[in-house]
């Protein structure tokens, strides 16, 4: 199979779909790999590095899209990229379709087979291709929030760890999954006063046992959220409903109960955001203020630490890329139900139920798409 990867064009996105090491693996399996010139510069990988791994370097993205049977990316295709997709081609990347009707419509129109990293499953309903980026985003959320709390950026002027004689900042993390756990690790390490909310008693027990009192846990409901945000200086939105739009847990009305200059970091912004006042931002302009509350809603947070993120992502995406290339997408999905869960759009049909429900499409089961 001819497999391609291109330079990411989303604002301040420096990751790349395939590392030189991943290219070497695909070539060793007998596949041709085409790489757009400059695609790996954001992770410190030159065209020469890719050539040494067996890739053919191409001048532009259109050449790669036109000729490759599978395109491996990181972020969802932008409008210009979507115009280059075609029927029978495989797109393997993050998609986050539920809050993005324009992208979904374009993918349906193109006839492409779109496999989304974020809905590929693993044992125990885990999301192994989402996990490494959730780990990165969770840890970055505290860094970003700590910076946004500084007075020069519009924040309250609070140091999360405090100093002797001055109380530490209060951090509220809504959601105790991968993002929430990693955010709590960073916040606890900085010496903040940390509380994690979740609706799963087993998650709360696991967090309580792990942190041994260094982070508090509470069962999440509307009343608890409403109470806790009045006390917090930094709120991390870390909720996830796989493939679906995130629930709006903090309303605009609630902002009026928060301390002026407090910070909201919405890690769920890729799925529409879990704060009513959230809107996607970029690394170029990461924050804005609503009713005196600072919002950080960057939709590709891990792109800021591109080398770490790219290698962590390739560790989990490459095995499936090899299966698709080796077997063809239909046989690869038939052989692996976890990979089949990643199929979101194929042949002009929406094949992921939560996306179909959110955006009003007729749902086509994966089994029908594989016939």
How does this model look, in words?
This protein has 371 residues and is of the alpha/beta class. The protein has two domains: 2-119 and 306-369, Rossmann fold; 131-299, Rossmann fold, CATH 3.40.50. The chain has 15 helices and 15 strands. It has an eight-stranded mixed sheet with strand order 3-2-1-4-5-6-14-15, with helices on both faces. Strands 9-8-7-10-11-13-12 form a seven-stranded mixed sheet, with helices on both faces. Strand 12 and strand 13 form a beta hairpin. Helix 6 packs across helix 7 (178-189) and helix 11 (306-327) crosses helix 12. It is globular. The model has no long low-confidence stretch (mean pLDDT 97).
What order do the helices and strands come in, and which of them pair?
Elements (H helix, E strand, L loop, with lengths): L1 E4 L14 H9 L3 E5 L10 H6 L3 E3 L2 H7 L2 E3 L6 H4 L7 E4 L7 H10 L2 E4 L14 H18 L21 E5 L3 H12 L3 E6 L2 H11 L3 E5 L2 H7 L5 E4 L14 H4 L7 E4 L20 E4 L2 E4 L9 H22 L1 H7 L1 H4 L2 E4 L2 E2 L2 H7 L6 H4 L2
Parallel strand pairs: 1-2, 1-4, 2-3, 4-5, 5-6, 7-8, 7-10, 8-9, 10-11, 11-13
Antiparallel strand pairs: 6-14, 12-13, 14-15
């Amino acid at each position: 199979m001819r497999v391609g990867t291109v330079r990411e064009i989303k604002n301040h996105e420096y990751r790349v779909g395939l590392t030189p090491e991943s290219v070497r693996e695909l070539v060793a399996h007998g596949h041709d790999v085409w790489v757009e010139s400059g695609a790996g510069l954001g992770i410190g990988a030159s065209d020469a590095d890719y050539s040494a791994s067996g890739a053919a370097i191409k001048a532009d993205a259109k050449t790669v899209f036109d000729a490759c049977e599978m395109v491996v990316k990181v972020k969802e295709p932008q409008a210009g990229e979507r115009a280059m997709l075609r029927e029978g081609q495989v797109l393997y990347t993050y998609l986050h379709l539920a809050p993005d009707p324009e992208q979904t419509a374009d993918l349906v129109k193109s006839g492409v087979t779109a496999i989304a990293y974020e809905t590929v499953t693993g044992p125990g309903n885990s999301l192994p291709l989402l996990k490494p980026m959730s780990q990165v985003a969770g840890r970055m959320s505290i860094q970003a929030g700590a910076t946004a709390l500084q007075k020069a950026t519009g924040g309250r002027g609070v140091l999360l760890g405090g100093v002797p004689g001055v109380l530490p900042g209060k951090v509220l993390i809504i959601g105790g999954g991968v993002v929430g756990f990693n955010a709590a690790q960073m916040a606890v390490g900085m010496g903040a006063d940390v509380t994690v909310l979740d609706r799963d008693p087993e998650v709360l027990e696991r967090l309580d046992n792990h942190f041994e009192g260094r982070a508090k846990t509470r069962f999440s409901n509307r009343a608890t959220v409403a109470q806790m945000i009045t006390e917090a200086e930094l709120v991390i939105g870390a909720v996830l409903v796989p493939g679906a739009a995130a629930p709006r847990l903090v309303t605009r009305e609630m902002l009026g109960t928060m301390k002026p200059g407090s910070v909201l970091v919405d890690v769920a912004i890729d799925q529409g955001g879990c704060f009513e006042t959230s809107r996607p931002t970029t690394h170029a302009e990461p924050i804005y203020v609503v009713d005196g509350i600072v919002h950080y809603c960057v939709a590709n947070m891990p792109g800021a630490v591109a080398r770490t993120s790219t290698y962590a992502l390739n560790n989990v995406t490459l095995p499936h890329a090899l299966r698709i290339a080796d077997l063809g997408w239909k046989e690869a999905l038939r052989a692996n139900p976890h990979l089949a869960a990643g199929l979101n759009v194929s042949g002009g049909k929406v094949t992921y139920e939560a996306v179909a429900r959110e955006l009003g499409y007729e749902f086509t089961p994966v089994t029908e798409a594989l016939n």
